[in-house]
Amino acid sequence: MAEPDYVYIPEAELEGFVTRIFTASGCTPHEAARISNHLVGANLSGHDSHGVVRVPRYVEWQKAGYVLAGQTVDTITDGGSFVLLDGKFGFGQTVAQQATELGIERALQNGACIVGLRNAGHIGRTGDYAEMATAQGLISIHFVNVAGSVLVAPFGGTERRFSTAPFCVGVPLPQGPVILDFATSFVAEGKVLVASNGGKALPENALITAEGQMSGDPHTLYGDYAPVGPRNAAGGTGAIRAFGDHKGSGLALMCELLAGALTGGGCSGPITERARIANGMLSIYLSPQHFGDEAAFHQAAQGYISWVKSCRAADPEAPILAPGDPEKQRRAKRRITGLPLSRDAWQGILDTAASLGINGPQGI
Ligand code: NAD
Q1: 27, part of any domain
Q2: Could you tell me the residue range of the domain that residue 271 belongs to?
Q3: Cys-Cys with 86: which of 5, 74, 124, 364 at CB 3.0–4.6 Å?
């Protein structure tokens, strides 16, 4: 496969440009800046699948009324140590931030809080919310599903039954947080999107065709598509595979049950039940300070992580990392190089901007 053709855009320039796009699409400057900061932050962390490549799709969803600007979560149940919130199809970066802020506030007061959020627009990179919690010294655990977006085949299956349902755990430590954050699908759908836009190719066994053949071809998921323009996951007949055989498939099912069925936002399918795609998230916030001896926890955890990382590497060029380390390394690098975007993805964003009367940054 030919090397994808990339443009490199400085972080601040990209963030300003995307903020202008969402301001033009009808968000307040504050909300537009938050959405932009989240998307650019995903690119900075190396998760291009959850970065600005999403801009055309977010703007389309907003135009279609699937996602709404300026929402504030409604409280459905408040038990003090647990809260159930409705995001009312607001931008995920807005309503999931509100839900996370509430969970943090309660856990700092009482030691723990469980927050259910339903009907959130796409919340993006789940690690962003864990990073908010770890920055306040809290452990956080997040089960997420995508109601109405059925893309993933269960272990042994060839038909779609799960969403890409991410799972995330953040642990705060003095030398920096440990953040585990991944989709329970073999690859996040955004990685299929990036590959279809000329970006990094998929592993050959990331997808499965309706006939049960392994595939790395985005057409398996999207069917026919033009080089630049929207992708329709309903267009293909295949599915993304769940990661980790029966174990990843089981974790995906649990994300659907906790983030979808328990919050009331609904599971990923059957698709005919709903037209609107929304994230659900069940989050658990825990304060080590309230729970036990925080200093002893830090010492034991940090010592253990150092020991794990001291393991002899199979490849001397690839030392053992803790979850969250790759993102830290990419942030440091991309702050210097700028953020790489495939030309097709960049053109898609420029086209969306132009449709809103916004010019792209000069000289890129
Ligand atoms: P991924 O496969 O890149 O895995 C990322 C995780 O693995 C991170 O915690 C990272 O630190 C860790 N990791 C990677 N390489 C490592 C190594 N060598 N050693 C130790 N740890 C390592 O992630 P993904 O499945 O592609 O998910 C990407 C993003 O997509 C996530 O942020 C996820 O939350 C997001 N997502 C969101 C939705 C949604 O609906 N909002 C759906 C799916 C995925």
Answers
A1: no
A2: 71-183+245-304
A3: 74
- Most informative mutation of 163, 171, 182, 277 for ligand 1 (most atoms within 8 A of CB): 182
81: domain CATH number is: 3.30.1370.60
User: Given this model, what pLDDT does residue 4 score?
Assistant: 60
What are the structure tokens assigned to 238, written together? 């295949």
Residue 188 in contact with ligand 1 by CB distance below 6 A: yes
- Between the CA atoms of 187, 95, 327 and 215, what dihedral angle is there, to the nearest 10 degrees? 10
CA distances from residue 206 to 36, 55, 112, 201 in whole angstroms, order as listed: 29, 24, 37, 10
Q: Which pLDDT score, from 0 to 100, does residue 55 have?
A: 97
127 lines ligand 1 (CB under 6 A): yes
| Number of domains forming the structure of the chain | 1
Distance of CA 107 to the CA centre of its chain: 23
Residue 163 counted as domain residue? yes
Positions of the chain with pLDDT under 70: 1-4, 271-275
Identify the pLDDT of residue 344: 86
Does 178 reside within a domain?
A: yes
Residue count of the chain, please give it.
364
In this structure, is the dihedral angle defined by the CA atoms of residues 139, 105, 45 and 330, taken in order, positive or negative?
A: negative
pTM, rounded to two decimals: 0.95
Q: Kindly state the helix (H) or strand (E) to which residue 288 belongs, with its residue range.
A: helix 288-291
Rg of the chain (C-alpha set): 20
Task: Check residue 1 and give its pLDDT.
Answer: 44
Q: Tokens at residue 286, please? A: 């825990």
Ligand 1 mean position, distance from CA 179 (Å): 9
* CA 361 to each of CA 12, 349, 364: distance values in angstroms, whole numbers, following the listed order: 11, 11, 6
Q: Where are the beta strands (DSSP E) in the chain?
A: 6-9, 74-78, 82-90, 112-120, 139-147, 152-153, 166-171, 178-183, 207-208, 214-215, 239-241, 278-286, 339-342
